[in-house]
Design goal:
Length: 227
């Protein structure tokens, strides 16, 4: 699932990184989130890519649309400005087959987008591979995704953080492979760099998550989740 909004500059590279996987994917879905540029035309250059269009509603809504409009048992996501490492699925899918594992992450490595290097060469960002708890680094079973629930759509920039916090509250097995699975593009247009209110929104989400956990701690168990 590739959510894309005005992503004409980088979408082609994202799609090609999926097509170049050492383990072929069953389907590629680009959800155009109301783009006003040539994003849809770029996606349609690739015959194997299915394009879904919707009015602009944010990345969370676009990911949800991609999930609900498909039937695959295993789901993976890629932001339109990121690039999967060629062996991403080769590293992650075997872990997803292990008993008790329904979510697999990997390492993420930031890179400065070559087309922006002159403008952004003074930006300080982490260049070492780090554990990547991000949508582009995720592979998840559909059953586990449905247990956690859809991505939030009410507030920009926080859909992923909200989903990840809810994942942590469920009894779901999570594994992390020690290989770089995603190259995250730093280009100045990243949402978290453009929106100064993002940090406040994240703090609010963490507070809500803590409140949920306190409420759950005072309630009797109602049974365990079944795979």
């Amino acid at each position: 699932m590739i959510p894309a909004w005005n992503a004409e500059r980088y979408l082609g590279e994202a799609i090609e990184s999926v097509l170049g996987q050492t383990v072929p994917v069953d389907s590629i879905v680009v959800v155009d989130d109301g783009s006003t540029d040539t994003t849809v035309a770029v996606a349609r250059r690739y015959p194997s890519v299915r394009v879904i269009q919707q009015a602009h509603a944010g990345a969370g809504a676009a990911r949800n649309r991609g999930v609900t409009d498909t039937t695959e048992a295993r789901l993976a996501f890629l932001d339109a400005d990121d690039i999967w490492a060629p062996r991403k699925l080769e590293h992650q899918l075997p872990r997803l087959e292990e008993p008790g594992v329904d979510v697999v992450f990997g390492l993420v490595q930031n890179f400065l987008s070559p087309d922006m290097a002159d403008e952004l060469d003074r930006i300080d960002f982490e260049r070492r591979p780090l554990r990547g708890f991000s949508p582009s680094a995720l592979v998840v079973s559909r059953v586990a995704w449905e247990h956690v629930g859809p991505f939030a759509t009410g507030e920009p920039l926080t859909d992923w953080v909200d989903w990840y916090l809810r994942l942590q509250e469920r009894d779901i097995g999570v594994a992390v492979v020690g290989e770089v699975v995603v190259h995250r593009r730093v280009h100045g247009g990243n949402e978290t760099m453009r929106d100064p209110l993002a940090r406040t929104a994240y703090v609010r989400l963490v507070k809500h998550a803590l409140d949920r956990r306190r409420r759950q701690a005072t309630q009797p168990p109602v049974g365990s989740w079944e795979h």
